[in-house]
Specification:
The protein is α/β, with parallel strands linked by helices. Helix content is 42%, strand content 12%. It is elongated and about 70 Å long. The longest helix has 18 residues, at 153-170. The strands form two sheets. Strands 5-4-3-6-7 form a five-stranded mixed beta sheet. It folds into two domains: 46-170, no CATH class; 187-345, Nucleotidyltransferase, domain 5. The structure holds zinc ion. Zinc ion (ZN) binds at residues 93, 95-96, 98-99, 105, 110. Keywords: Nucleotidyltransferase, RNA-directed DNA polymerase, Transferase. Residues 50-117 form the Reverse transcriptase zinc-binding domain. Pfam families: RVT_3, zf-RVT. InterPro entries: RNase_H-like_dom_plant, RNase_H-like_EbsB-rel, RNaseH-like_sf, RNaseH_domain, RNaseH_sf, RVT-Znf. Residues 191-313 form the RNase H type-1 domain.
Length: 353
């Protein structure tokens, strides 16, 4: 209702000129009651609108609802999906390695998940016979629930979300203890860190590779152009992965202390974090996916001090020359403390430094 001099006028809000036409009504009807077009490119199947409505009506957190939305839209980064984008070395399920990792396999058909669905409180039959598409399966559940009570859709959605998280982190490396742990003989451990000063927008990266004896094997530190701390961390990881090409065949364990980066990249959740970092994350994923003999760990800051010191030093403008062969005193101290602590914790009685 306009408050000014203009009189009331009936307008159709969905037509550009405000006039109602049959065509407008038809488009509106399709929009309201019709189907959404499936986001999966190879399929002409449309997810029924009842499914989308059902998801938004769930009495769940918005995180779970948007997860279900992505499931039904085929928008989850499964290994098959990543493989087709050359971001994963294999399309097979990371848990059973028997079937392509598509969303239906991930959430419903992989052996251990099937057991979950067939048990109480779900008692749902889940097999290749019954499941062709996740959205159809969930749509069936919506209509079944209308007829019989007992299966809570909220619980089903929550279980799907938990299954996905469990999958992602089942193969993901775990957080290691508070101290730096040397790699096993024959392997190299690479600690990676970024630093960012938000007052001056100066950023730096530190990358340091050590062998099983704690000896610095290679490293890099330098200033980078970043707009956030997260971006500096991501750039450090990207550079570290790129440097792998200099050491073909080397077994490497990368350690980072940025949980957000770790979750996004190694949990394959590329949506989120700093929006400006999308292309960097993609490059990390490609690098990690194509690298052989490489593993990743999320570590605590305390065990990533050498890389942290390097990154912070370059941000402060310290010029570090030949630090790999002759580390400056503060870095030498961190390195010897790292090794001393590790040996002490492992019960090796050997004085260092
Ligand atoms: Zn599987």
């Amino acid at each position: 209702m306009p408050r000014g001099e203009v009189g009331d006028k009936r307008l159709c809000g969905w037509a550009k000129d405000g006039k109602y036409l049959v065509k407008t009504g038809y488009s509106l009807a399709v929009e309201r009651f019709g189907s959404f077009v499936d986001m999966r490119p190879s399929s002409s199947f449309s997810t029924p609108k009842v499914v989308w409505n059902g998801i938004w009506k769930l009495n769940s957190t918005s995180k779970v609802k948007s997860f279900m939305w992505r499931d039904c839209g085929g928008a989850l980064p499964t290994r098959e999906d990543l493989f087709s984008q050359k971001c994963s070395s294999s399309p097979l399920c990371q848990i059973c390695s028997l079937f392509p990792e598509i969303i239906e396999h991930c959430l419903l058909l992989c052996g251990w998940v099937r057991k979950l669905w067939s048990s109480s409180p779900f008692n749902l039959k889940v097999s290749n016979f019954f499941v062709s598409r996740f959205d159809v399966w969930f749509g069936d559940l919506l209509s079944i629930e209308m007829r019989r009570s007992g299966v809570s859709l909220e619980l089903v959605a929550f279980a799907c979300w938990e299954v996905w998280k469990a999958r992602v982190f089942s193969s993901a490396p775990s957080v290691v203890p508070d101290w730096w742990i040397p790699p096993v003989p024959g392997e190299v451990k690479v600690n990676v860190d970024g630093s960012f000063l938000k007052d001056s927008f100066e950023a730096g990266v530190g990358i340091i590779a050590r062998n099983s004896e704690g000896v610095v094997f290679a490293g890099y530190c330098g200033q980078v152009s970043a707009t956030s701390g997260f971006m500096s961390e991501a750039l450090a990881m990207k550079l570290a992965l790129e440097s792998l090409s200099n050491f073909p065949g080397l077994k490497v364990c990368f350690e980072i202390d940025c949980e957000e980066l770790f979750r996004l990249v190694f949990g394959r959740m590329l949506k989120g974090g700093d929006w400006a970092c999308g292309h960097i994350l993609k490059e990390i994923l490609v690098g990690a996916g194509s690298a052989q003999n490489v593993s990743f760990s999320l570590v605590r800051r305390a065990s990533n001090q050498a890389a942290d010191w390097l990154a912070r030093s370059v941000v402060k403008g310290l010029v570090l020359k030949d630090w790999v062969s002759s580390p400056p005193p503060p870095l030498a101290l961190i390195l010897s403390l790292d090794l001393e602590t590790a040996l002490g914790r492992m019960g090796v009685k050997k004085g260092v430094g």
